[in-house]
Structures are given as structure tokens and as C-alpha cells.
Specification:
With about 400 residues, the protein is of the alpha/beta class. It is about 40% helix and about 20% strand. It has 14 helices and 15 strands. The chain has helices at about 20-35, 60-65, 85-100, 130-145, 200-210, 225-245, 255-265, 270-290, 310-315, 330-340, 345, 355, 370-375, 380-390; strands at about 1-10, 40-45, 50-55, 75-85, 115-125, 150, 160-165, 170, 175, 190-195, 215-220, 245-255, 295, 320-325, 395. The strands form two sheets. Strands 1, 2, 3, 4, 5, 6, 7, 8 and 9 form a nine-stranded mixed β-sheet that branches. Helix 5 (about 200-210) runs parallel beside helix 6 and helix 8 packs across helix 14 (about 380-390). The longest helix has 19 residues, at about 270-290. It is elongated and about 85 Å long. It binds adenosine-5'-triphosphate and magnesium ion (MG). Adenosine-5'-triphosphate (ATP) binds near residues 198 and 200.
Length: about 400
């Protein structure tokens, strides 16, 4: 018997002529996600991918956890690959069901601890001497005898034992849902404006889920913001990198620009002018690194800088598309995703963000672009931006590395 992991993928199967490229990317991303776990072989057959570890001490649980984070994967199953021989099938099926019952992973148990089950067989190997219904019936009978707590229920069983008879036979029962989406790298690159908040990591995750490669930019206002605030953002990027393997994080010193804006512009326009400066810098860094769009965590109406009027003013600062995947979402829905993707606990750590350092008491909620441009014109923005970019630090964040 050999333990393998069956990986199912969804949407990419529909992509017509692009399909081979998508599949190749997915296989590549699967291999990358399993870094340092030991030697594996990855095989593809009939719209499925089999990960076959080549070492005895392979950490299957960790591998499965990582695979559920690879975009493009819809579910994974721990599978036992055995000989296509009915005696073997009986022996290992009983062992697998006992193991599942012992580990308590069945969805529900009935009266007196009974566990309902059924067997589902697919026979691809027509040389195998028994037909599918015959295999299911005989195997079911054998298992009932072997494992006394089992009871057959064909309508709503808590365990389905899948038996696929091919050249080899594959048996499995657990189907663990994964992230879905499209493989990272099947779409272009985007530049995520990553703050230390709840929203922007979720926005980045959503874009990566649709196949975009993420690069990120963070603005910090040392010494008004602390080293720990920066470390928090690095940690958020590291959590995101679990889904997309590596992220170049550009850390931009923003203090001089903020001080200048604070000094020379009307208080109620500070936020909007600051956000425009952020967009301009992000666009420049995007251009220099082959990213074709910006991504923010803005959601309509959440704060003064996220009204339609404000978004119009921030968008006007740049020429490339700005994607805001959270635009129509409520905060609670965003928080649900943040919890699911493991960024929430880090996002709520109480370190200050540069936006909270210089804030007006009553920011304009309906800024007018001509007025903003006029206020902005007193600044020497171009030079300030050039300087900030020169002093930008770039880190390549990967999941396994400590920072
Ligand atoms: P978040 O939870 O993502 O911080 P928010 O609701 O706090 O969002 P704002 O602080 O107004 O909203 O920021 C809006 C968006 O601007 C953020 O989602 C992020 O994309 C970007 N942004 C804000 N501050 C920074 C920063 N210091 N560095 C990089 N991007 C930032
Ligand atoms: Mg914020």
C-alpha cells in the first residue's frame, strides 16, 4: 500500500485552449507549496493530480494543509493506492474505515454509536473480474461483518468509501475542501497597497485567488509608526505568501510626505491628498516591476476616504486600473474571510498605521477634484515621491522564512 494525495481541480478544466498552461501552472504551484516536505512525484491523469511522496516519514497532514491553500485546487483526499486485487481491496478498506472511525472524522454517528456508510465503486479497468455494483455489494457485506459499529445507509451515510479500480486501485473516504479559484500566475501581476489593517490582506488574497501574482507596497511613517507596526505588515505578507508562495514587499518611508502635506494643505483634505500620494507612489513602483493594476482594501462608505467622491479623487491620481475587490462587502463579511485565511489575529494587533497618525478631526467626505488639485499644487510632490522611492526597501517574503 502506498499513501498518495488526490488533488481535484475545478474551474481550470473549463478553460479550453488555455487548459495545458493552467494545468502546468497548477502542478508547479503544488510542487512549490510542498517545499521542504521531502521528495514527491506529481502525476496528472483524467483531470486529477496525484501527489506521491517518495519518503516514509512524509508529513501528510502538513502537506494536505498546504494543498488546501493552493488556488485552483477544489478539494484533496488522502488516498491509499493498492493492487487491483479483491483480497487487497477488502483488507485495506477495512483498515481505512477503522482508522477513520478511530480518528473521529465521520460527520455523524447514529444511535448506540453506529456509523452509517456506503461503498461507491468505479471500475475503469475492464479486465478486473468483478463489475462495480458487485464490488460495492461484496465489499459492503465484508465490512459490515468486520466492523460491528457499521450500518448501511445509501441515502445519507456518514462515511462514503470510494473505490476506484484502475491499473492500481485507489481507496479513499475523506474529501477536504480547498480554496478554489485559479492558479496564481495565470493572470497578470498586481500591486497591493498593504496596510496593517483587516481589509487590504483580504483584498490581496481575493486577487491572488483569481490567479493574479501579488506584489505589495507598504507606507510607514517612522518614527511616528513603530518598528513593530512594520513587522506586523511583514507578518501579514508572510501569511499571504502561504497562498501565493512569494511576495515582493516594498516598504516606503512616508514621513516626509506626510509632514509636508500636514504642513501645507488644508486639514480636512489631508487624508485624501495623502491617499493620492500613496497611489502615485504605488503606480510608479508597479510600473517599475511589471504590475499592471493597483489593489486596495477599500469598501464603499466605510470611512470618509471611501465615499464615491473620495474614491474618484484617489483614482484620478493614477492611470492604471485600481481594483477594490471589497468595494461591495460589509465589514463582517471581510472579517469572516480574514479569519478563514488566518490574517485576522495579526491585523487586529494594536500597532498604529501611518493613516492614523495624521488624521483630521473632520475629513471631507465629498472632496472636489479641482480643489484637491489646487491644494496639492503647493507641494513639491514629484521630488518628494522620487526621494521616497529611492529610500524604499524591498523584501522578498516566502512562507518558510523568518524575518
Ligand atoms: P485596511 O484595513 O486595509 O487598513 P481601512 O479600512 O483601514 O483598510 P484605510 O486606512 O482608509 O482603510 O485604507 C484604505 C486602503 O488604503 C487600505 O485597504 C490599503 O489598501 C491602503 N492603505 C492604507 N494605509 C496604507 C499603508 N500604510 N500602506 C499601504 N497601503 C495602505
Ligand atoms: Mg487602515
Amino acid at each position: 500500500m502506498k499513501k498518495v494525495i488526490l488533488v481535484r481541480y475545478g474551474e481550470i478544466a473549463l478553460k479550453g485552449l488555455n487548459r495545458p498552461t493552467f494545468e502546468a501552472k497548477l502542478v508547479n504551484n503544488i510542487k512549490r507549496s510542498l517545499y521542504r516536505l521531502g521528495k514527491i512525484e506529481v502525476n496528472r491523469s483524467q483531470s486529477r493530480i496525484y501527489v506521491e511522496p517518495q519518503t516514509d516519514d512524509y508529513d501528510y497532514d502538513l502537506a494536505i494543509e498546504r494543498l488546501t491553500k493552493v488556488f485552483g485546487v477544489i478539494s484533496v483526499s488522502p488516498v491509499w493506492k493498492i493492487e487491483s486485487n479483491f483480497e487487497e481491496i477488502k483488507k485495506y478498506s477495512a483498515e481505512m474505515l477503522k482508522d477513520i472511525i478511530d480518528r473521529n472524522v465521520v460527520s455523524h454517528t447514529g444511535a448506540e454509536g453506529t456509523v452509517t456508510f456506503k461503498v461507491e465503486t468505479k471500475r475503469g479497468n475492464k479486465r478486473f473480474p468483478m463489475k462495480s455494483p458487485e464490488i460495492s455489494a461484496e465489499l459492503g457485506g465484508f465490512l459490515l461483518e468486520r466492523i460491528p459499529v457499521l450500518k448501511v445507509d445509501v441515502n445519507n451515510p456518514s462515511i462514503i468509501l470510494f473505490v476506484e479500480v484502475r491499473e492500481s486501485t485507489y481507496i479513499y473516504s475523506e474529501i477536504i475542501p480547498a480554496s478554489g479559484g485559479l492558479p496564481v500566475g495565470t493572470n497578470g501581476k498586481v500591486m497591493l497597497l498593504l496596510s496593517g489593517g483587516i481589509d487590504s490582506p483580504v483584498a490581496g488574497w481575493m486577487m491572488a485567488k483569481r490567479g493574479a501574482v501579488l506584489e505589495a507596497v507598504h507606507f510607514h511613517s517612522y518614527p511616528y509608526t513603530s518598528e513593530r507596526a512594520k513587522e506586523k505588515v511583514i507578518e501579514l505578507a508572510r501569511i499571504l505568501s502561504n497562498y501565493c508562495y512569494n511576495i515582493n514587499l516594498h516598504i516606503v518611508p512616508f514621513t516626509d510626505i506626510q509632514l509636508e502635506i500636514n504642513d501645507k494643505c488644508p486639514q480636512d483634505e489631508l487624508t485624501i491628498i495623502m491617499r493620492r500620494a500613496m497611489m502615485m507612489i504605488a503606480e510608479k513602483i508597479a510600473n517599475a516591476n511589471g504590475a499592471l493594476a493597483l489593489v486596495t482594501g477599500e469598501s464603499l462608505g466605510q470611512v470618509a476616504s471611501q465615499t464615491i467622491e473620495s474614491l474618484y479623487c484617489t483614482d484620478s491620481a493614477v492611470n492604471m486600473p485600481v481594483f477594490r475587490p471589497l468595494i461591495g462587502m460589509d465589514k463582517n463579511d471581510v472579517i469572516d474571510i480574514a479569519r478563514k485565511i488566518d490574517t485576522f489575529e495579526t491585523s487586529i494587533l494594536p500597532y498604529e498605521d501611518c493613516c492614523t497618525v495624521f488624521v483630521a478631526k473632520h475629513p471631507k467626505t465629498k472632496p472636489k477634484l479641482p480643489n484637491i488639485l489646487k491644494s496639492e499644487s503647493v507641494l513639491n510632490l514629484e521630488e518628494l515621491i522620487e526621494k521616497a522611492i529611492e529610500k524604499t526597501e524591498v523584501l522578498t517574503i516566502t512562507p518558510g522564512k523568518k524575518y
